[in-house]
Design a protein that fits this description.
Bound molecules: FE2/S2 (inorganic) cluster
Number of helices: 7
Number of domains: 2
CATH architecture of the largest domain: Roll
Strand content: 15-25%
Distance between the termini: 46 Å
Strand order of the largest sheet: 2-1-5-3-4
CATH topology of the largest domain: Ubiquitin-like (UB roll)
Shape: globular
Helix content: 25-40%
Number of strands: 5
Oligomer: single chain
């Protein structure tokens, strides 16, 4: 059933009209043209679609719009609205990520976890990144970037 929903995306209120079960990922990419959040498996497995909702990293592909109503959402585009984010700087410095397709979701998971709890360690983040697939073998460089970032924020 089509309904009206209000969500806040990267600090901007958005009024959305969509079927209640439309995945938040489709709303971001198709309605709001925020293409930085990627469609991978579409089934809650790969992590490419990870965004931050009310401070927690979640998969946007299996989050229906009805459950996002009234929530604050941050996407990869929101990270750099005031210039490149320090976490992105570290990922670039370490050349972490070869394809860029999974890196948006990986970046958002790392950002969300450290925002929520800056006392997290690299090992904690490594465990949580289990939910974001990367097949190019960049995990070591991604974790080096996380280590550098943690030193900046802690
Ligand atoms: S596209 Fe959402 S987890 Fe794979
Ligand atoms: S960054 Fe995409 S496969 Fe590793």
């Amino acid at each position: 059933m089509t309904n009206k929903y209000k969500i806040n995306v990267n600090g901007i209120d958005q009024n959305i009209e969509a079927d209640e079960n439309t995945p938040l990922l489709y709303i971001l990419r198709n309605h709001l043209k925020l293409k930085g959040t990627k469609f991978g498996c579409g089934d809650g497995i790969c992590g490419a679609c990870t965004i931050i909702m009310d401070g927690l990293p979640i998969f946007s592909c299996d989050t229906p719009i009805w459950s996002a109503a009234g929530k604050e959402i941050e996407t990869i585009e929101g990270l750099s609205k005031n210039g490149i984010h320090p976490l992105q700087e570290e990922l670039i410095n370490e050349q972490a990520g070869q394809c860029g397709y999974c890196l948006s979701g990986i970046t958002m998971r790392i950002k969300g976890l450290i925002d929520k709890d800056p006392s997290k360690t690299v090992d904690d983040i490594a465990n949580e990144l289990d939910r974001n697939l990367c097949r190019c073998g960049s995990q070591t460089r991604i974790l080096k970037a996380v280590d550098n970032y943690l030193k900046k924020v802690s």
